[in-house]
């Protein structure tokens, strides 16, 4: 009995060893693989290793069957291919989002309407990075005139006075085709809530007290601007004009805030503008702190003094002209 049981156990072990050596597996790609070199001492292999040289297993007879390559997967449909591959990899040209198609609300000055803004600086810089550098080419836009504007206002060392008031009101009319300055409106404005300028304000802007004393107040200046616009043909319904500023402060904060304080209603043309800093960010792919930074990035020579309204307008006009020459997109970036 014991001899028979031992013989039977030995036969079962040898049979299991044959199965282990002869068994064919498939890997994850569908290619057949043969198990070789796996431990098999627990099933009675005399060498303790499952190998074709094992004395308990005769070598296979005849040629080994050739391995068959995996069958090619069926072609993906257009929909499946688009769904499984990231968009930026499935297109030959990187997709740039429509930067000016979506507007977000943000807080407006007290007493003014809600403000809609375009893309952030981060959006514009990222879009320029994705797009890559472009060859200089004339800008294509829809405006006949660009009205470059840069206010100077009352200020002090620690905090601006409340209410803050415009003390310099310059506008340059730039031809939309030649990008040259063709007309200028410029006046200083007499503040009424705080008629005395601080020493800090004079040092920053170069505007002394005599330059604002006896000058028209803001309500009178707005009427003067209307007359100048009428003379220049800017109020013609067929004429497309837009203000250009360095930042959003001038037309988002300063003018609406003072008009609200004085209970004035400015024209609708002041409710939309181009922030030249956003145009620069979208074109150059980098942030700019201000006018001097943009001019350095464009290899332009700064003229006049910073925080002089009329000099700032001249330098903004030079930046606008150079960006247009490089093919920058000149569209409204914010509106009330």
TrEMBL record:
SUPFAM superfamilies linked: Ribonuclease H-like
Keywords for this protein: Exonuclease, Hydrolase, Nuclease
Matches recorded under InterPro entries: 3-5_Exoribonuclease (IPR051274), ERI-1_3'hExo-like (IPR047201), Ribonucl_H (IPR013520), RNaseH-like_sf (IPR012337), RNaseH_sf (IPR036397)
Domain Exonuclease: 145-329
Pfam families: RNase_T
Transmembrane segments: none
Keyword Nuclease assigned: yes
Name of the molecule in the record: ERI1 exoribonuclease 3 isoform X1
Organism encoding this protein: Petromyzon marinus
Chain's gene name: ERI3
């Amino acid at each position: 009995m014991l001899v028979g049981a031992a013989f039977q156990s030995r036969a079962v072990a040898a049979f299991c060893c044959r199965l282990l050596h002869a068994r064919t597996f498939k890997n994850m790609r569908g290619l057949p693989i043969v198990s070789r070199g796996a431990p098999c001492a627990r099933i009675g292999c005399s060498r303790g290793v499952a190998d074709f040289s094992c004395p308990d297993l005769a070598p296979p007879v005849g040629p080994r069957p050739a391995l068959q390559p995996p069958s090619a997967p069926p072609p993906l449909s257009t929909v499946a291919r688009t769904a499984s591959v990231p968009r930026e990899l499935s297109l030959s040209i990187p997709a740039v989002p429509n930067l000016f198609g979506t507007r977000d609300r943000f807080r407006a000055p007290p007493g003014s309407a809600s403000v809609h803004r375009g893309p952030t600086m981060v959006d514009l810089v990222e879009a320029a990075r994705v797009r890559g550098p472009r060859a200089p080419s004339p800008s294509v836009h829809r405006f006949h005139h660009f009205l470059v504007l840069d206010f100077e206002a009352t200020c002090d060392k620690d905090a601006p006075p409340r209410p803050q008031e415009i003390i310099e009101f310059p506008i340059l009319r730039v031809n939309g085709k030649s990008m040259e300055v063709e007309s200028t409106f410029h006046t200083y404005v007499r503040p009424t809530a705080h008629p005395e300028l601080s020493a800090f304000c004079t040092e920053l802007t170069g505007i002394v007290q005599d330059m604002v004393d006896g000058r028209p107040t803001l309500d009178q200046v707005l009427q003067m601007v209307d007359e100048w616009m009428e003379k220049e043909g800017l109020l013609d319904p067929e004429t497309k004009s837009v203000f250009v500023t360095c930042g959003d402060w001038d037309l988002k904060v300063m003018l609406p805030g003072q008009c609200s304080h004085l209970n004035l209603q400015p024209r609708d043309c002041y409710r939309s503008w181009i922030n030249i800093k956003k145009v620069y960010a979208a074109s150059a792919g980098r942030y700019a702190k201000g006018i001097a930074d943009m001019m350095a990035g464009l290899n332009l020579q700064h003229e006049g003094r910073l925080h002089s309204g009329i000099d700032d307008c001249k330098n903004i006009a030079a930046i606008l002209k150079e960006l247009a020459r490089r093919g920058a997109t000149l569209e409204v970036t914010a509106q009330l």
